[in-house]
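Before going further, learn to read the protein records used in this course. A complete example follows; check for yourself that the lines match position by position.
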Amino acid sequence: MAICFSAVIEIRGVNPFVGVSALQAEALKPGWRKPLPVLVRINGDSTIAWKTNMMPDGNGSFYLYLHGNMRKASGTKVGDRVRVDIEFDAAYRNGPQDPMPKWFRQALDSNAQARKNWRALTPSRKKEIVRYLSRLVSEDARRRNQVRALQVLSGQDGRFMGRSWKNGS
């Protein structure tokens, strides 16, 4: 399902956006209340649509934030009236986009409590951790972060990735 409408680019804080009404969102993906993966074209700016998420407003409507590259490609700015073409991104896949590093998988598999607490984490937390660990380059950084991760996942209180952990979460 796709929708097309015109709207004025507004700004919220420092973020330019176009509002998508509850009725429009319902036509796009009925009953959806979380970030909605979509493909977007502004003023028909491209043959390839931008992949992004519309963010829920809490009342059924959504914010469609328009980052700088979107606005540049369409030659638009805050205050402009634009034509917006949106379709649900059916190719979107939730969950970790990076494979879990083998060195972390092996360490996790050898620690039953850490593995149990890992399985209890939300998908978004797992995704965040895997993304972080998969980008570590040096062996020292890998070792240091593996130790910290296993400690907090094992239930020890501590800090890892800028968060305080208690009882493995």
Observations:
- The chain has two domains: 2-88, 102-165.
- The chain has a mean pLDDT of 90.
- Helices lie at 22-28, 68-74, 102-109, 112-120, 123-134, 139-153.
- The first helix runs from residue 22 to 28.
